[in-house]
């Protein structure tokens, strides 16, 4: 496992990390969470991703209990949460980045995680109804209070991120330092084109999610939707159209042939491909079983096999 700086910040994250979206509480109980987090840690992972909205707060509770059971030294790992959607229906408690919500929501996340602070906190989506100045000041306040160490954005337009950085610089506030965008072989435009200026001019970091395109890039959907997979869960039925797209599945079949030649799985190839991009600080992996954690972690061994010729062959398939 190599460790990369989170943009221009001083903190370093393992090139692979473990996230809890979809799985924690929905598919993973406490014993499984402890087992998977332990396996990831043994492989060198030091960053574990979460969010207030995941399983409506239950994911944070599960991770917090798991951390308590694992008993790791707090300074040896990084934990994140993300705020925007909220857990209640009050007019100032959902789909917002207003100051009141943010300052109260971080307290709720810390209580569920059973932590004094999170290392990374994200504004989970942009809020067009709250002035960016208000959001930047609120995030600065959270960091100054010691409840978070770094803050960033998730799925924000590049222009909004630049605006937030400029507000922070103008008022000498803590700037956002990282973005958490979707990035995989089938979802590239925003990361590679729109965000290019953020990486080049501002040294923005990235903690990318959905490296396997919701499981499509594992190859397990080539013959239909397996029982117990993400695509079989009612709450993720919106993914079915993509997971059963014959054009994409044909590309996955061709990628599998390339992976076979390298002695890798299709999933390992997809993750290693992301690690070839120097603008990726860490790839957030997900798993519902510890075996998947072990397999995903082996992707770091495939990176050196992705020669220019192999990268060109991949590009011909996915372009």
Please explain how this structure is put together.
Helix 1 (30-42) packs parallel to helix 11, helix 2 packs across helix 3 (99-113) and helix 3 (99-113) packs parallel to helix 4. The longest helix has 17 residues, at 246-262. Helix content is 41%, strand content 13%. The protein is of the alpha/beta class and 319 residues long. It has an 8-stranded parallel barrel with strand order 3-4-5-6-7-8-9-10, surrounded by 5 helices. The chain has helices spanning 30-42, 58-70, 99-113, 132-144, 158-171, 189-194, 196-202, 240-243, 246-262, 266-275, 290-297, 308-318; strands spanning 3-5, 12-14, 16-19, 47-49, 78-83, 118-123, 148-153, 176-179, 205-208, 282-285. The protein has a single domain (3-216, 278-306), classed as TIM Barrel.
Keywords, please?
319 residues, alpha/beta, TIM Barrel, eight-stranded parallel β-barrel, 12 helices, 10 strands
What would you call the structural class?
A: alpha/beta
Q: What count of structural domains?
A: 1
Distance between termini? 29 Å
Query: What strand line-up does the widest sheet have?
Result: 3-4-5-6-7-8-9-10
């Amino acid at each position: 496992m190599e460790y990369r700086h989170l943009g221009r910040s001083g903190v370093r994250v393992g090139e692979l990390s473990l996230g809890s979206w979809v799985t924690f509480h929905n598919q993973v109980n406490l014993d499984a969470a402890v087992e998977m987090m332990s396996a990831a840690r043994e492989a060198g992972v030091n960053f574990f991703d979460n969010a207030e909205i995941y399983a409506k707060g239950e994911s944070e509770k599960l991770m917090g209990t798991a951390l308590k059971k694992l008993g790791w030294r707090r300074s040896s790992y990084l934990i994140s949460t993300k705020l925007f959607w909220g857990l209640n229906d009050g007019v100032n408690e959902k789909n917002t980045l207003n100051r009141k919500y943010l300052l109260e929501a971080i307290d709720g996340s810390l209580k569920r995680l059973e932590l004094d602070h999170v290392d990374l906190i994200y504004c989970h989506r942009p809020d067009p109804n709250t002035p960016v100045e208000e959001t930047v000041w609120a995030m600065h306040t959270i960091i100054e209070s010691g409840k978070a160490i770094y803050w960033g954005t998730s799925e924000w337009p590049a222009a909004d991120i630049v605006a937030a950085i400029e507000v922070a610089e103008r008022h000498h506030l803590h700037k956002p330092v990282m973005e958490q965008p979707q990035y995989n072989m089938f979802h590239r435009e925003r990361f590679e084109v729109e965000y290019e200026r953020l990486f080049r001019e501002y040294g923005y970091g990235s903690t990318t999610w959905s490296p396997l395109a919701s499981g499509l890039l594992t190859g397990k959907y080539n013959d239909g939707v397996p029982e117990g997979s993400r695509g079989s869960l009612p709450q993720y039925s919106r993914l079915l159209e993509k997971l059963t797209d014959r054009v994409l599945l044909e590309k996955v079949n061709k990628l599998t042939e390339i992976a076979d030649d390298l002695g890798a799985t299709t999933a390992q190839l997809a993750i290693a491909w992301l690690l070839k991009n120097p603008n990726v600080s860490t790839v957030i992996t997900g798993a519902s079983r510890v075996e998947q954690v072990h397999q995903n972690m082996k992707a770091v061994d495939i990176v050196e096999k992705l020669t220019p010729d192999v990268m060109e062959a991949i590009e011909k398939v996915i372009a």
